[in-house]
């Protein structure tokens, strides 16, 4: 991961910087994340797991390149056949992006990043309960559409897909034993963005 971060920074800083645009972006974000989760021990199925998500992001633009950090928290409950399932997910992402379109008002920014995610699923029924968790490294692909407003504010949308390529086993949170459970490694997300832009060349 250290080498990946150094490569992103090197690409961002490559080429003369004096004539390039320099901006900082800050935003809050909310939306949905959708997971496919298998069900342990023949409990009722709940797929997909659609979670409400909130988070925040900050990024630095130099010319047409972008480097940023993002935090996201998601939570959701589902009920079926006297069984409840709650899913909780935290993720932190470092990402690099490129301004595919850099208009005065509209910006289109595809990006790719590394995310560290922790996910927990809690099943409870009249007969049994399970509290399972997993941590994994993911590739976080996304595209942002940003529309600049007055007073350097902006609104936008972000759609993306997280792909878990470094998978660890699910474990029971209480006993720390490996669980007969898998899934939840990949997820789709769609979020609304609201934030502000700082022109760093004017400061």
Automatic annotation (TrEMBL):
This protein's name: Outer membrane protein beta-barrel domain-containing protein
Keywords linked to the UniProt accession: Signal
Signal peptide: 1-19
Biological source species: Flavobacterium cyanobacteriorum
């Amino acid at each position: 991961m250290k080498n990946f971060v150094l490569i992103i920074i090197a690409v961002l800083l490559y080429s003369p910087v004096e004539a390039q645009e320099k901006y900082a972006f800050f935003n809050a974000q909310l939306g949905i994340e959708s997971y496919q989760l298998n069900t342990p021990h023949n409990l009722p199925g709940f797929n997909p797991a659609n979670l409400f998500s909130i988070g925040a992001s900050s990024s630095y633009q130099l010319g047409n390149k972008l480097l940023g950090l993002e935090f996201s928290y998601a939570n959701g409950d589902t009920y079926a056949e006297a069984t409840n399932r709650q899913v909780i997910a935290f993720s932190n992402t470092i990402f690099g992006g490129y301004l595919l379109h850099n208009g005065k008002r509209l910006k289109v920014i595809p990006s790719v990043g590394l995310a560290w995610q922790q996910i927990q699923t809690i099943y409870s029924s009249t007969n049994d309960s399970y509290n399972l968790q997993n941590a994994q490294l993911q590739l976080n692909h996304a595209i942002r559409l940003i529309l600049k407003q007055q007073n350097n504010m902006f609104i936008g949308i972000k759609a993306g897909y997280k792909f878990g390529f470094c998978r660890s086993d699910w474990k029971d949170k209480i006993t720390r034993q490996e669980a007969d459970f898998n899934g939840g490694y990949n997820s789709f997300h769609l979020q609304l963005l609201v934030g502000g832009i700082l022109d760093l060349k004017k400061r």
